[in-house]
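User: These chains co-purify. Model them together.
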Amino acid sequence: MKSLDQTLALAWRSLVQVRRNPWELGDYSIQPILFLVLFLYVFGGAVAGSTEAYLPFVLPGVIAMNMLFVTVYVGHGLNTDLTRGVFDRFRALPIPRWAPLAGRILADLLKQALCIALLLIVGVLLGFRIETSVWEVLAMVALVLIFASAASWIMVLVGVLSRDPEHVQLFGFTALFPVTFVSTAFVPLETMPAVLQPFVQANPVSLLADASRALLSGGDALEPALWTLVWAAAIAVLFAPLSVWALNRRLARG
Amino acid sequence: MGSAIRLQGLVRSYNGTRAVDGVDLEVLSGSILGLLGPNGAGKTTIVRVLSTLITPDAGTAEVGGFDVVRDAARVREIIGLTGQYASVDEKLTGRENLLLIARLLGLGRGGARRRADELLGQFHLLDAANRPVQTYSGGMRRRLDLAASLVGNPAILFLDEPTTGLDPRARRDLWSLVGELREQGTTVLLTTQYLDEADALADRIVVLDRGRIIAEGTSAELKERVGGRSLFVVVADTARLDDAAGAIAPIVGEHPQARDNTLSVAVTSSAVVPTVLRALDQAGIEVVELGLRTASLDDVFLALTGHAAEVTSETAEEGA
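Assistant: Joint model of the two components:
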């Protein structure tokens, strides 16, 4: 009970920070809307024949992309705490060792949920119609959040290994852009060169986007959703222990 | 109650070099100990071991009777830590920073707010309480950092170079706050590179150089060790400083130390004063001020280490 309160206090702190970090705030609000509107009206006609036809395709893609970009702030925030000595202050307090990380990931999930809601609302305002039940929409949100919490562990590792917060951002975005774009997030699989297609098909971003589309507009959601969960489990199993090990090593050294 | 902090044979290495090389230390309850030394002397390493942030390679460390490795959780309940760099959250306001710590320490909503306001008042931060810390001056940050480490009323407080990089006025402010802690009976371990700071605040001083203790005692005892008094001469024209030193050296039997426009040298007898004055007069050097004073900790440091204290406010004591 006490450690839950402490985790909540740390999560509260991560959320309050956003107010004074205009860059981060933009990444949760203006940037996803901008991406959605740009993709929709610039590429919509070329990719799908019309913006109306492209909207149900691109909206889940933008949701998946934005989810990945938001996870970068897990690593960014952790690294800031490590390099500025805030993490040391927490470690000298009588709180569980895992509380600072747990608070950060909890706050991240809240930010993620708000971003998904924002994109769905903007999508609806632009003409998107949800064809499925409330439960399927909730399943889609849950799927994105589960994948986000797994992907966060990769960013924890990046946050631990980076020299400063700027390097986290640099690494985060240079790695995330290819992963996001070599997927079916924005264009159908068939339009890409044959050599690229196996990568696109195996890419969890493709699987997540495909599953989200089916959960919002109908179609076979089960297969891509299950594969997304397999990816999430694999990432978590590999990166959670690795990140914690790297963090403890960094802390023991200094 | 006896000793609040006890170190025995503490050793801690970084990348193969021993930052702390066999240190024994005891701090009595309710007293202020000044850990004095240049960059890389091992001061920060000792503080990090005592505050449970790193474990020792050898030796034992006890805080409030608890072992810092075996009973780390108990130690964390009774200590406060103020690091070399203000470890407060820049994106939060001063009040939010204190509220966060209070909540983490288990205070309820109302209790946390009262404690935060109390500390903001005590540390003269009420006007800035609702501004983000990134707009604070260096002195305000340090005060907030100190306030944050006092939220839980710790019995034992570690201050790691609390005034490094501060302007003289902000230093004085912080000094008087530490003085208030002394009156409340808080045990303080303070590290500093500033000799005057140890002199002003600490009941006892431990001088550290390259991971080892090279001297300890009260400031008066340490000064005693270099022979009591030193002669100082302030010259009007800095260009004549070397000439003045040349004139004084044969009389006192040692070459004086120069800093700015002042020369100083340890002397055994006050009888040299008129002789020195005459010699300077004959050399045509205009003297602004000349006199005897008790040896400063600067003199002590020089005598003990063979090198002057490096008072560098900007350089970090990286990993040491």
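The CA atoms of residues 38 and 193 of chain B lie 5 Å apart.
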